[in-house]
């Protein structure tokens, strides 16, 4: 059996899990339009240069910069208009721009050979069909994008593990990759435990409550790019829990159990996890509030979490320990995990040696972002709904005072 009842910091819990998780995800090739939010399975490099030719970034005239030196409004540089660039057309065939010449060019047009800059149309005056006066000089390279300036052939463009964003799809389209190798989404099995739980459609009797966690955790898993699946409610009993866990572990890459982590069937859950495979339970308890009675296990290389039953606690622990695994397959150091700095509206106590996570509602007043704690016990799901994010009070602090800044991650 693993290291039971030893309370861990979040960092240690992550380290232990990282050390024991060995299961890998299959790779699939998906069309570019289905790749948003997916994780790249290998490094990608560009075959083509983007753009493939020098192009103008303005409507105007392609010129040799040196022909415009010294030009002013009162003494323009006069150039002969000897050509016109058409969009999408190869200018090489149309010849070369020579000294004293200018070619009309649209934004994005291919620079003719011989030209090294573009004069914006605003800084020209048309004297007749064939002559312009340039009223402002340009330097070589002005208003043009060079071939390969965006992406050079052979450039590594995106790395394995990267979660694809809209701009990444644009870049992959630019280099002509219409399909991408991505990891299959993590299949997440969700099991709720408790004799008091009933399905959403049921009317709870006295002493009963509807199952909240299956839905909230399903939402969190889906939001993190995983493929969640609900295994329903299991009664507090070893045999049925073992059965359900066994099934979920065969069909999923990661399994979540909620409830029964503290007293109740705690030992049952831990015993079940140790029965199912090695190394079993890695830790029982993390030094955070809410979320202390969390069980972390690895069974045959796959992570299994016993999340606390209180819905807020389950969601907070999911956010800290499960989301990074689903998103990145790991616990990367993320300096932007809590990206917002906000000013506390009131004092909040916490115990040293324990990280506290506060539900906060953010608002802005006179240019300052304030964090207003949403108070309420961790059994109250409505507190999560009223909050816009989670603020962290680090373990070394004994609280935060009104006016002090804290770090917040947004939901
Ligand atoms: N004597 C102690 N009691 C408790 C302790 C403790 O240290 N000593 N820890 C408290 C803390 S903190 C938490 S968090 C909870 C953890 O409870 P469990 O993980 O053992 O879960 P349960 O006892 O089954 O449930 C707790 C609470 O949550 C409700 N619950 C559970 N599952 C769901 C669900 N799917 N949907 C909605 N609500 C759910 C359950 O009905 C209980 O009210 O223990 C404290 N107690
Ligand atoms: O962990 Mo309990 O989660 O403090 O409510």
Describe the structure.
By secondary structure, the protein is α/β, with parallel strands linked by helices. It folds into four domains: 162 residues, Molybdenum Cofactor Biosythetic Enzyme, Chain A (3-Layer(aba) Sandwich), CATH 3.40.980.10; 45 residues, Alpha-Beta Complex (Molybdopterin biosynthesis moea protein, domain 2), CATH 3.90.105; 91 residues, Beta Complex (Molybdopterin biosynthesis moeA protein, domain 3), CATH 2.170.190; 71 residues, Beta-clip (Beta Barrel). It is built from seven helices and 28 strands. A six-stranded mixed sheet has the order 7-4-6-5-9-8, with no helix packed on it. The protein has a six-stranded mixed sheet with strand order 16-13-17-21-20-18, with helices on both faces. Strand 24 and strand 25 form a beta hairpin. The longest helix has 18 residues. The chain starts with 9 loop residues before the first helix and ends with a strand. The model has no long low-confidence stretch (mean pLDDT 94). The structure holds ligand LQZAQKY5 and molybdate ion. The site of molybdate ion has 9 residues, from loops.
């Amino acid at each position: 059996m693993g290291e039971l009842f030893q309370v861990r910091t979040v960092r240690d819990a992550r380290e232990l899990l990282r050390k024991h998780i060995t299961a890998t995800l299959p790779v699939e090739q998906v069309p570019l339009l289905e790749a948003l939010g997916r994780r790249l399975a290998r490094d990608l490099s560009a075959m083509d240069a983007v753009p493939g030719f020098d192009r103008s970034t303005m409507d105007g005239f392609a010129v040799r910069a040196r022909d415009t030196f010294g030009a002013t409004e009162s003494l323009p540089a006069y150039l002969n208009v000897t050509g016109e660039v058409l969009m999408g057309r190869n200018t090489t065939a149309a010849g070369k721009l020579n000294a004293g010449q200018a070619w009309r060019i649209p934004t994005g047009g291919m620079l003719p050979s011989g030209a090294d800059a573009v004069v914006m149309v605003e800084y020209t005056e048309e004297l007749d069909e064939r002559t312009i006066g340039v009223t402002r000089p340009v330097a070589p390279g002005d208003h043009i994008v060079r071939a390969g300036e965006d992406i050079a052939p052979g450039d590594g463009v995106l790395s394995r593990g990267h979660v694809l964003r809209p701009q990444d799809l644009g870049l992959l389209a630019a280099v002509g990759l219409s399909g991408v190798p991505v990891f299959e989404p993590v299949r997440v099995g969700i099991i709720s435990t408790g004799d008091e739980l009933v399905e959403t459609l049921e009317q709870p009797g006295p002493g009963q409550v509807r199952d909240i966690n299956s839905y909230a955790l399903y939402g969190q898993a889906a939001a993190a790019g995983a493929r969640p699946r609900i295994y329903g409610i299991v009664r507090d009993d070893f045999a049925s829990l073992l059965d359900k866990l066994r099934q979920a572990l065969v069909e999923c890459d990661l399994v979540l159990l909620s409830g029964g982590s503290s007293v109740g069937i705690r030992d049952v859950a831990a015993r079940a996890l140790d029965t199912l495979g090695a190394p079993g339970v890695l830790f029982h308890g993390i030094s955070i509030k809410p979320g202390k009675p969390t069980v972390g296990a690895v069974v045959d290389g796959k992570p299994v979490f016993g999340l606390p039953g209180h819905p807020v606690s389950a969601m907070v622990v999911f956010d800290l320990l499960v989301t990074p695994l689903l998103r990145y397959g790991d616990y990367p150091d993320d300096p932007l995990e809590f990206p917002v700095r906000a000013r506390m509206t009131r004092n909040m106590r916490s115990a040293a040696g324990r990280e506290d996570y506060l539900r906060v509602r953010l608002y802005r007043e006179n240019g300052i972002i304030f964090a207003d704690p949403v108070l309420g016990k961790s059994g109250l799901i409505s507190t999560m709904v009223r909050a816009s994010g989670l603020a962290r009070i680090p373990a070394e602090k004994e609280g935060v005072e009104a006016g002090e800044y804290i770090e917040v991650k947004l939901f």
